[in-house]
């Protein structure tokens, strides 16, 4: 997946003293997610113009199209960010989601703030400020994220469980004592919960 090779782990401490590891999404994965969302919004607008016949309704159709355009531009990301997944379809496709700096789900105020400030990121150089901000910061935040105290992070996806029938047993080079066998079995049972370190 684009943007996952860099080690840009950000830690957040919960009130219980637990350290959460958050992996901020870089420029490439955020760009691809934005592109998918932009194409989806374009498809909805295209369907409204041609499929629903907004243009045949005259002035009323134009008004409905402007309202739809406004809603898609300003509230499309907010609605999806406040959903259970915390991600728009584009972000979900690339395994991203939006969270608060402390790792908690995004709040309505923070979602509105970060999305209203997309205009500041966009102007005057076509997301130039957002790109520079993402590239210069370890946590890959754009201006909207800074103002709203949010992060776009790679969502941890559960790894596929391997069934014992899928694993070919290999006999050890020398026989193991019962204590050693118990230690290997205990390690195998704990393996899914162990970190890379």
The proportion of residues forming helix, as a percent range, comes to 40-55%
What number of domains?
2
β-strand number = 4
Spatial strand order of the main sheet:
1-2
Q: What is the overall silhouette?
A: elongated
The end-to-end distance, rounded to whole angstroms, is 22 Å
- Structural class, from helix and strand content? mainly alpha
Number of helical segments with 4 or more residues: 9
Poorly predicted regions are: 1-6
Tell me about the biggest sheet?
2 strands, antiparallel
Summarize the helix and strand pattern as letters: EEHHHHEHHHHEH
Overall pLDDT, averaged? 84
What radius of gyration results from the CA coordinates? 23 Å
Please state roughly what percent of the residues sit in beta strands, choosing from under 5%, 5-15%, 15-25%, 25-35%, 35-45% or over 45%.
5-15%
Write up this protein.
With 197 residues, the protein is mainly α. It has 2 domains: 10-154, no CATH class; 164-193. Helix content is 48%, strand content 9%. It is built from 9 helices and 4 strands, in the order E-E-H-H-H-H-E-H-H-H-H-E-H. The protein has helices at residues 27-51, 59-74, 76-81, 89-93, 108-116, 118-122, 128-136, 143-148, 178-190; strands spanning 10-13, 19-22, 96-100, 150-154. A two-stranded antiparallel sheet has the order 1-2. Helix 1 runs antiparallel to helix 2 (59-74). The longest helix is centred in the first third of the chain and has 25 residues, at 27-51. It is elongated, with a radius of gyration of 23 Å. The two termini are 22 Å apart.
């Amino acid at each position: 997946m684009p943007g996952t090779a860099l080690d840009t782990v950000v830690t957040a401490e919960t009130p219980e003293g637990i350290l959460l590891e958050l992996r901020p999404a870089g420029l490439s994965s955020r760009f691809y997610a934005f592109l998918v969302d932009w194409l989806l919004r374009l498809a909805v607008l295209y369907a409204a113009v041609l499929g629903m016949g907004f243009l045949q309704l005259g002035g009323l159709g134009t008004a409905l199209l402007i309202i739809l355009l406004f809603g898609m531009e300003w509230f499309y990301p907010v609605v999806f960010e406040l959903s259970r997944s915390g991600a728009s379809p584009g972000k979900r496709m690339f395994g991203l989601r939006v969270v608060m700096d402390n790792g908690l789900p995004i709040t309505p105020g923070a979602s509105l703030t970060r999305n209203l400030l997309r205009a500041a990121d966009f102007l005057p150089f076509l997301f130039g400020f957002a790109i520079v901000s993402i590239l210069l910061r370890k946590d890959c935040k754009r201006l909207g994220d800074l103002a709203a105290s949010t992060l776009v992070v790679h969502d941890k996806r559960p790894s596929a469980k391997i069934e014992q029938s899928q694993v070919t047993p290999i006999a050890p080079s020398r026989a193991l004592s019962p204590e050693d066998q118990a230690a290997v079995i205990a390690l195998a049972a704990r393996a899914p919960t162990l970190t890379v370190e």
